[in-house]
Amino acid sequence: MHSTERHNASIVYTTPMIDLNTAQAADRIAKLLANPESRTLEFKRISGKQSRMYEAVCAFANSEGGLLVIGIGDAKAMKPGDKPQSRLFGIEENPEGFDDFRRELLNRFTPPITRLHWLRLPCTLHNGQPGHVVMLRVEKSDQVHTVVGNGTWTRMDASNRELSAVEIADLTYQRGVKSAETLPMPVALDLLNTDAWRSYCLTRGLADMDVAVRLPRLGLAVPGEAGLQPLLAALLLFADEPGALLAGQGMRADIRVFHYKGKAVQRGEVPNLLLPPKTITGPAIEQIAKAQAYVLERLAVGLTMEGSGFKTRYRYPERVIKEAITNAVVHRDYRLNRDIQIRIFDDRVEVESPGRLPGNLTPATIEKTGSVPRNSLLARHLREFPNPPNVDAGEGVPMMFAQMEQAKLYEPLYREQLETAVPTLVVTLLNLERPTVWDEVSAWIDREGAISNVKLCDIAKVDTLKASRMLVAWRDQGLLVPVPGRAKRNMAYTKPTTADAESGSLLSGLEDNNAGIAK
Fold first, then answer.
1. What's CA 104's distance to the chain center, in Å?
2. What residues contact 364, with CB distance under 8 A and at least 6 apart?
3. Structure confidence at residue 304 as a pLDDT band (50, 70, 90)
4. Distances from the Cα of 34 to the Cαs of 45, 87, 173, 263, 355, in angstroms?
5. What are residue 414's DSSP bridge partners?
6. What Rg do the C-alpha atoms of the chain give, in angstroms?
7. 351 DSSP β-pair partners
8. Residue in 200, 273, 1 with CA at minimum distance from that of residue 119
9. At 331, which helix (H) or strand (E)?
10. Alpha-carbon separation of residue 516 from 469, 474, 512 (angstroms)
11. Beta carbons of 334 and 236 less than 8 angstroms apart
12. Which residues does 240 contact at the CB level (< 8 Å), separation at least 6?
């Protein structure tokens, strides 16, 4: 699967298929045969109708992505005593059917699915004849797809399931194809004639501040049966208490901050809260500013651990805290009946916002991709306030990773919580200094043995030349010694034994030679 990406990261269905050589293919097929079908893996023979294959492609695109392996039979069809190779039927079983499948992929889905990656593997088939297995990798999509005339599908643990109309609508909100911010709200327009509205108008140079005139022009109100209705985005931007106005609609829009003693929530008769929870309300611009100020104030105060007298010092960059809170407000799913929760512990800060990552974002890709605006109206209009919390340029998340690295802290950890009643996205910022490169190298040697230039490149994220210089420097400092009998091209290093260290000291004749070495 990863070989496809190394050749071309933007392969679509019309791109010529990539072929692996025989040795690579044999290894890949052996691994495939050893794995059962799962949420991200399905096997299909090309015999008969291909409708099940279209369903699988649709399901993968609408879920977390996955791999459709064409030309391998289901393991459940094997008989006792059959070898794994008996499942290899290849695309040669129905070459015309396979060609039709490839050719018709673009026209079989609404909207079209184009983020497809093809890899062809030569092999020996079950009958001893040469043939090919094809791997089709389907990326998680930022849209919701339907098989023309055959429904909308999602992926289960090892099968595909057709979605109902209600589930399709829910998926469009999850993916950010639709946003609750565009929903008309049964709220009087006068409730939006607030200080936040006037501040917004003054910043934009709008002389006429009549909400009934301006909101429709700004795309923030629409006609309804009972007259002009503001969109949810307008309530979030301008209402003094949007959370209270939304309570009757089964929605929430506030922030709750919890500051705990210790490293975990203790659920007992007396909770381990340092002080009562703080509820932060108001229009989005004020809510973000108040939450940022309160959390930064709590972090500045620190936390004295009970019984030890030790005071925790929080080392987070201020910009990272602010960005995490801003993103929670701007990108949360406002359909869901849950407040944003910020939890402060002595070893981390957690920012939990309702909803999953929108689009095709995953926790693994968000560092490079950056955030995707679920609520584009809200994000766009927040830029027009004095001292806006965001510039809406998509650089915020990569900045968080860079700032945490510069502060020598662990990178932000993103995870989706799907097992709860309301799905949420949790961003964890660890108040924990990350190990130096030498600490990681030392731990690797203790665990695995000698370290090579290639492994150091992987650990330190540096090129070969810089890794060589680092190894030579540690060797000169006496921290590492070359593994005997290795050619220069295959050189590896390990820690010196006691005898090696004593020998090095005698040869140098300088007792203070190691004075500057980091331990």
1. 32
2. none
3. low
4. 17, 11, 37, 41, 35
5. 427
6. 29
7. 342, 427
8. 1
9. helix 318-331
10. 18, 12, 8
11. yes
12. 191, 194, 196, 282, 283
- CA-to-CA dists, residue 364 to 9, 138, 323, 353, 415, angstroms: 16, 16, 19, 18, 9
| CB distance 134 to 91 below 8 Å | yes
Nearest residue to 518 via CA among 456, 442, 445, 406: 442
Task: Please give the C-alpha separations between residue 117 and each of 12, 58, 65, 360, in angstroms, as whole numbers.
Answer: 6, 14, 11, 16
For residues 139-159, average pLDDT: 95
Residue-wise pLDDT tens digits, 484-496: 888 877 889 998 7
Cβ 463 vs Cβ 448: under 8 Å: no
Please name the residues in contact with 513: beta carbons below 8 A apart, sequence gap of 6 or more.
478, 505
Residue 130: asked if its preceding bond is cis (omega within 30°), the reply is no
Residue 246: Cβ within 10 Å count: 22
**pLDDT band (50, 70, 90) for residue 449:** confident
Residue 36 scores a pLDDT above 90: yes
Single out the residue of 412, 464, 460 nearest to residue 440, CA to CA: 460
Instruction: Give all domains of the chain, ordered by start, each with its CATH number.
Output: 2-163 (3.30.950), 180-239 (no CATH), 255-430 (3.30.565.60), 437-508 (1.10.10.10)
Q: For 48-82, write each residue's pLDDT tens digit.
A: 678 999 999 999 999 999 999 999 999 888 889 89
Residues 6+ apart with CB under 8 A from 375: 179, 180, 181, 233, 330, 331, 332, 334
What 3-state class would DSSP assign to 281? coil
Closest CA to 412 of 361, 362, 458, 349: 349
The per-residue pLDDT for 29 is 94
Highest mean pLDDT among 90-94, 269-273, 384-388, 503-507: 90-94
Output the CA angle 508-514-518, nearest 5 degrees: 150
- Our separate counts of H helices and E strands in the chain read 18, 22
Task: Give 3-state DSSP helix, strand, coil % of the chain, rounded to 5.
Answer: 40, 20, 40
Cα distance from N-terminal residue to C-terminal residue, the chain: 42
Rounded average pLDDT over 126-144? 95
Q: How far is CA 24 from CA 5, 21, 119, 261, in A?
A: 15, 6, 12, 54
| Dist CA 384 CA 390 (whole Å) | 10
Chain centre to alpha carbon of residue 163: 24
Confidence of residue 500 (pLDDT cuts 50, 70, 90): very low
Specify whether the CB–CB gap between 52 and 45 falls below 8 A: no
Is 172:221 a contact under the CB 8 Å cutoff? no
| Mean pLDDT along residues 245-251 | 92
How do beta strands 348-354 and 424-430 pair? antiparallel
CB atoms within 10 A of CB 341: 18
